[in-house]
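Chapter summary example: a protein plus adenosine-5'-triphosphate.
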Amino acid sequence: MKKIGLFGGTFDPPHIGHLKLAKSVLQTLELDEIWFIPTYEPPHKSDAIAKPEQRLDMLNLMLEEEPNFKISTIEYEIKGKSYTYETVKHLRKQYPQTFFYFIIGGDMIEDLPKWYNIEELKRMVQFVGVNRKGYSEYNYRDVLMVNMEEVPVSSTAIREDLKNRKEPQGLTKDVLHYIRENGLYEN
Ligand SMILES: Nc1ncnc2c1ncn2[C@@H]1O[C@H](COP(=O)(O)OP(=O)(O)OP(=O)(O)O)[C@@H](O)[C@H]1O
Ligand SMILES: O=C(O)c1ccc[n+]([C@@H]2O[C@H](COP(=O)([O-])O)[C@@H](O)[C@H]2O)c1
């Protein structure tokens, strides 16, 4: 059976924290691949700033040279708010011979009980949590923890820096170029 890690996010924009997290999980759990799943509309967040197509372009640029990382546009096909339960249900139907993990950052663990259909979802995937700066206490028994050296980077901090005309930390060269070309996050 193939072991695939699903990694959902708004990726507004994608950054090296996402990349390092995926690399740590791929290695530690010896997965075959990780599929990044950009959300079309984030379910529990106010709307993303960049358009879905722009977030997908940036993800493609960041993952171009990463053979074990793929992008699934399934949530762009489903459209509307992207609930993980629906996404996983579709993927399991399409890939019945695959074991799926669902990867989240440490900041999301305490929110898991509020996710749509979470009890059912927990039976469909193995959740994997990765430590994140500022979130070191975990108390959620269904999450398999993977440790990595913390990467103090977030999309929020990057957007703030760009808005304040400061040099942002944690973007790849190509993604920064795309952001500048398209005038993203300037206001
Ligand atoms: N630096 C990081 N270390 C560990 N996990 C991270 C890191 N950045 C993001 N994640 C995790 O990656 C997933 C997708 O994150 P998302 O696209 O929302 O980025 P973000 O940096 O958390 O964005 P924002 O600051 O806008 O909330 C989430 O599960 C989040 O917890
Ligand atoms: O299904 C839910 O109820 C749910 C609630 C909050 C977040 N998620 C998923 O968690 C992933 C990370 O979310 P975010 O908001 O940090 O980009 C992304 O794939 C979301 O669709 C899912």
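Key point: The longest helix spans residues 16-28.
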